[in-house]
Amino acid sequence: MIWNEKMETLSRAEMQELQSERLRKLVAYVHERVPFYQRQFAEAGITPADIQDIRDLTKLPFTRKSDLRDHYPFGLFAVPREEVIRVHASSGTTGKPTVVGYTRDDLQVWAEVCARCLALSGAKPGDWFQNAYGYGLFTGGLGMHYGAEYMGVGVIPVSGGNTARQIMILQDFQPDIMACTPSYALTLADRLLEAGIDPSSLRVRSFILGAEPWTEEMRQELEAKLQVDAVNIYGLSEIIGPGVSNECVEAKDGAHIMEDHFLPEVVDPETGEPLPEGQVGELVFTTLTKQALPLIRYRTGDLASLTYEPCSCGRTLARMSRVVGRVDDMIIVRGVNVFPSQVEAALLTVEHVAPHYAIVLTREDHLDRMEVQAEVTPEFFNRVGAEVFGRHPFEAVGEIQQLQERVRYTLREALGLNVAVTLLPPGQAPRSEGGKLRRVIDKRVLK
Ligand SMILES: [Zn+2]
């Protein structure tokens, strides 16, 4: 079902008109209420009158995570303390968290967009929902909780962790829908299978997965193991929490953005220039209706692309691709933006290659050179590789060269770049040892 038939199927012209009207109001609202935006607009030499429709969006300055940090905890709030009836916070990896606030109307919008996400994931009123997102300062648990209640879905607020209890509830309460992180869904699937529980004995038919990046390969694995639909939900606390976008269960081809509330853009992470439809860049959102913490052109740091193509589910809402990486991970090779996750995704499509790799950047004659060192699978290595990497017989060398050529071709198609490829025996590429894995070795001399 489509939860909000009217808003989710507007024509492009109707949507743009609505967005323009809301943008005009928003700009006047923040200019009146938030000193930070008064200064930002003055520095950019604009007044609210300069913003007439969404084509004027690029005149507006960006807002960054550091702006929220610099105004910790409530400096960017647009309403007095008494009107804030909920706060959440995201755990900062360093120092203070990012604090977000909601008015009563904000909470209503949040419930509405989360209800849309549940419907996108296949839920309908009368269903039961096992919510394994964390409850607390994290937005995941309570965001989905109120969306489900608003929809008329029965919530089991189990929160995260305690796998034995999650499985007991799946078996005894028989919910129709479940939400958790993709990595936790994998843990659950494995524990179910270990315990000899047949997934078809469970009523659950959809898993709503988010809060961390995952891949198409993981979807296939989860859907096969759990015998469910696995769909991606996207959100971030600065924009509202979960509910910014969600894949439809019908197409599973990009997440529909609630663009009547969150106006999306994709910009070049380096220059800030808007990028055309389909091109990967940094996702930027403007909150069109938020009251407590409205944000103008917020740089998410997430890398994805947008499409406005109609979807087979009947919704006209724009769709965003999966998040392919973070801006901080981006490398620039001969003027082309490259993300390690793109390399990983490309390698995963080549048979006999394992998703363990390193990227080595060097500079020769003032030109960047990129080399991808990728491991072959143990099966491939045992069949032909062991001899190649050891004794180099002719036939096997041929097979290795063919594989190398296939990887080179795949990477060129995926990245739009010629790269050198070296195949490694299993176990030779860097592995995560708890900390952040360094896959990129940049040996270029800084200019
Ligand atoms: Zn769709």
Structure commentary:
With 447 residues, the chain is an alpha/beta fold. The protein contains twelve helices and 21 strands. Helices cover 34% and strands 23% of the residues. The model has no long low-confidence stretch (mean pLDDT 92). The site of zinc ion (ZN) has 7 residues, from loops.
| Distinct bound molecules | zinc ion
Strand content: 15-25%
* Main structural class: alpha/beta
CATH architecture label of the largest domain: 3-Layer(aba) Sandwich
Radius of gyration: 24 Å
Give the class-level CATH name of the largest domain.
Alpha Beta
How many helices? The count is 12
Strand order of the largest sheet: 4-3-5-6-7-8-9-14-13
**CA-based shape:** globular
Q: Can you tell me the CATH superfamily of the largest domain?
A: ANL, N-terminal domain
Average pLDDT works out at 92
Helical content band: 25-40%
Unreliable residue runs: none
Distance between the termini: 56 Å
Characterize the largest beta sheet: strand count, sense, and whether it forms a barrel.
Answer: 9 strands, mixed
Total domain count: 2
Q: Please tally the β strands and state the result.
A: 21
CATH topology of the largest domain: Rossmann fold
